[in-house]
Amino acid sequence: NAGVMQNPRHLVRRRGQEARLRCSPMKGHSHVYWYRQLPEEGLKFMVYLQKENIIDESGMPKERFSAEFPKEGPSILRIQQVVRGDSAAYFCASSSYEQYFGPGTRLTVT
Amino acid sequence: GQNIDQPTEMTATEGAIVQINCTYQTSGFNGLFWYQQHAGEAPTFLSYNVLDGLEEKGRFSSFLSRSKGYSYLLLKELQMKDSASYLCAVRSGTGFQKLVFGTGTRLLVSP
Hints:
Helix content of chain A is 0%, strand content 52%. Chain A is an all-beta fold. The N and C termini of chain A lie far apart (37 Å). By secondary structure, chain B is mainly beta. Chain B contains no helices and eleven strands. In chain B, the strands form two sheets. In chain B, strands 2, 4, 5, 9, 10 and 11 form a six-stranded mixed β-sheet that branches. Chain B has a five-stranded antiparallel β-sheet with strand order 1-3-8-7-6, with no helix packed on it. In chain B, a hairpin with a 6-residue loop joins strand 9 and strand 10 (99-101). Chain B is globular and about 45 Å long. Classes of the chains: A mainly beta, B mainly beta. At the A-B interface, strand 4, strand 5 and strand 10 of A face strand 5 and strand 10 of B.
């Protein structure tokens, strides 16, 4: 039973470009959560999705960030027009009851 | 809102016991989680408490007091590989709700 998968593991983007981060939950899990971790800081919740539904997006910045979890395929976190402050590790988790984390995508904006 | 506090850093010696405390303030408490995170890696699940008392799992134990808004993670027979950050997280509400994390406690185990 494969764990939570994320890709890419590392992503480098120039300011103004778009970043797309993908997450495939564990088999049998239909709840996906995205968290962001800035250097030397704790994990901050961004968004919680079920298939085709955004349940809680209270942690998402109002602009440039969006997330989806389509009926088929992985969940995608999209960041448009990236800025240096978006550089962070982005973790996806899926849950039955405990949340299991993927390996993360480390985004570097140059 | 929710507020979670834990010490920033702790040091301990190989073979010793260390207790990492976590205090929280939240409404609709629905579980407290401990995760371990090595530098540059993903958090890995350690323990979950929803009722008062002690949960033991090998060298690791976690305690919860809901009335005090307090938990601790106890690590026994410390090993060098236990050097990591330990994250306390609280869930509130019902069902599959988000976790709110503390900033983590960086534990350094020395020989």
